[in-house]
Structure formats: C-alpha cells, structure tokens
Amino acid sequence: xxxxxxxxxxxxxxxxxxxxKKNREQVPLHILKTQYKVPYEALIRQINETATxxxxxxxxxxxxxxxxxxxxxxxxxxxxxxxTSGMLKEMNHSLSQTYDVELLxxxxxxxxxxxxxxxxxxxxxxxxxxxxxxxxxxTPIIYNTITRKVYENDQWVDRKLDLQGKFLxxxxxxxxxPQQSEKEMLQNESKPIxxxxxxxxxxxxxxxxxx
Length: 211
Prior knowledge:
The chain is built from 7 helices and 5 strands, in the order ααααααβββββα. By secondary structure, it is of the alpha+beta class. The protein has a 5-stranded antiparallel beta sheet, covered by helices on one side. The protein starts with a helix and ends in a 22-residue tail after the last helix.
C-alpha cells in the first residue's frame, strides 16, 4: 500500500472527525439535522467518502492475487471475508462512536490480514522449486513467483533471486487438494475489487452491518 496516501487520507479523516465531534458536543443533534442540515450532511458525506477511500487503500492496495486463477473466484473469497468477518460493523462503530482513526486503521489492517489468509491457497499455487541447471546437485530453493519470497528456516523471507538459467518446477495439487507444504515439496523432490460501504446516514444511531 502507498503509505503516503494512507497518511494523507488518515490526516484528512482525523480533521473531519474532529470537526464532527466538536459540532456534536456543542450543538444538539436535532438542531444539527434541522437548522444546520445542509452543512452537517455535507460534512457527513465528506467523512463517508474519505473513510471509504482510507479503508480501501489500507485493505486493497497492492493486494496480491494469483493472475493465473479465476479472478471472479478470488473476488468471491474476498467478498465472503468482508461479509462474514464482522470487521465492517467494528469500523462503523469506530467512526460513529469513537472518532478513532488509529483504531480504524488497525481494524482495516486486520481485515486485510484475513483476506490475505483466505487468498493464500491461490498464492501458494505459485510455490515452486528453483533448480540451478549449472549446479544440479545443489538443493533446490523454494520460491513463490507472486510474492517473490524464498522459503528458508521455516519462514518466507525477501531475497532477490536471479532466475536466469534456472529451472522452475511447479508442483500442483491433485484434484483440487490443498497445496503441498513447502517441506513436502522438497522431500518429494529428493473484476474490480469489491467495494466497502459506509452508511448514507452517519450519526450515533446508525446500526448497520456495513461500513
């Protein structure tokens, strides 16, 4: 994700929520929604738009998917996590009750983590063994061509790998069975992204399950 864009959106959202909090503390809600209806609703719309952009940037920016698998299937996995994680309700509460952008950020990161976990089986289909053809006797390196990470010491690590002159052996699961673990591999070898939604009415009485 673009950290500068996240920071920019987060700063804007903090200022907007600070204004909303101040207005609600100093003016009764029924007056805000009647006498000051136009500016109040304009502020709410701006908060909704900024919060949506902020959460989308955190959750979806540079989210890894498998380009060789059905995108619609992966989108469905993403949407299922969004619908069932309960995170949207928590985010809505952060906005309308606590005005806490830092909490909203942590919740968005948690949702992103849930989505990444759900997409992992698709990403793992690009795990492969990298064989150096000039040193065929060397132990193959376990590598993922999507994350561009190497598996060593029981963890994935960033390491620049020169693939020139290398043979990449992909081991695909049979009949849709789960991807083999990295250790098993080595042993065997010896649409647009779904949108988040914020309620059109943004006040302390909002009780939706959508953000």
